[in-house]
Design goal:
heterodimer; A: 135 residues; alpha+beta; hypothetical protein PF0899 fold; three-stranded mixed sheet; three-stranded antiparallel sheet; 3 helices; 6 strands; elongated; B: 219 residues; alpha/beta; Rossmann fold; seven-stranded parallel sheet; 23% strand
Chain lengths: 135, 219
Amino acid sequence: MQSGVKLQFLSNKYYNDIMHELSVTESVLKIACKHAEKAQADRVTDIHLVIGQLSSIIDESVQFYWDIISKDTLCEHAKLHFERVPAELICLDCDHQYSLAKTLMPCPQCSSSRIRVLAGDEFHLESIEIQSKDD
Amino acid sequence: MTEKRIKIVEKIFDANDRLANDNQLRLDRTGTYAINLMASPGAGKTSFILSTINALLNEKVQIGVIEGDTAPVTIDADKINAAGMPAVQINTGGECHLDAVMIENALDQLPLESLDLVVVENVGNLICPAAFNLGTHCNILIASIPEGDDKPYKYPNIYRGLDVLIINKIDLLPYLDFDMDYFRRGVEMLNPGLETFALSCKTGEGLDGWLHWLKSKLK
């Protein structure tokens, strides 16, 4: 074994369980809290996310982290809504537009491989629903 | 109690993207070209960096390396230091990718003023690194022959954001069932006309084309 190499992580399950949904979820929380504070909300009840088919984000995983990290914030118990946008492609040779099937495929009309993505890359926080006490 | 809906429409990666812009500005100030090197584990990222460092030794090109690893090991950074170049190790604490904040911190630890090139060796992974801008000038993926010819079809996102594709370990082509035409057709659909260099870090075959391209980017 090479000197200086530490292997204690092998026994640490933690290292295999974190996916990028954690940083993504933290980002969602930050954005939601920022806007809720600006609107002087007492609590956030709903959060609407728009996620394109091509964004590699797992809803269940975001929800899992959300329940943990939103605790003791304005967003605690807020419900997450995921709107999925299907991927749309356009053929650069014949202008044919088509939806992405399960696997990547050339233009079904002219078989060209010169294609571009029109939709499906989205990943944003669309809106939040808040409650605030009346003055 | 009042209830209302507030329209926001803010990109989730917005904060990261802004930091990435800051990183790039900083690199531009010192005239340092930066590469985000991505690949699956074992594709040859570190070998590729070492081959590049060794090939450019006589050209007086100063190269700094940022090593991203999910675990607290310094194997890769040690190799770079042994080759005589500064390396910064980022332990992501299990995170599957590097982000702009980690790069900002790593840049603090590199002598940017004297560097022509910074290579960021991203965490070995074909999914997550594709989503996070780092502020580098160029996204490069190393696809290696033993991984198989279907990777563009299985991991389309990472191919879409590339500026350069390296096909490594071509010395193994005679021994493996890798259909180069099928592979390249998949890449072409995702990233038409992508700059591609097929090479072997082991034999040195094909390295010249890559080095020529790289030198054209360095000031």
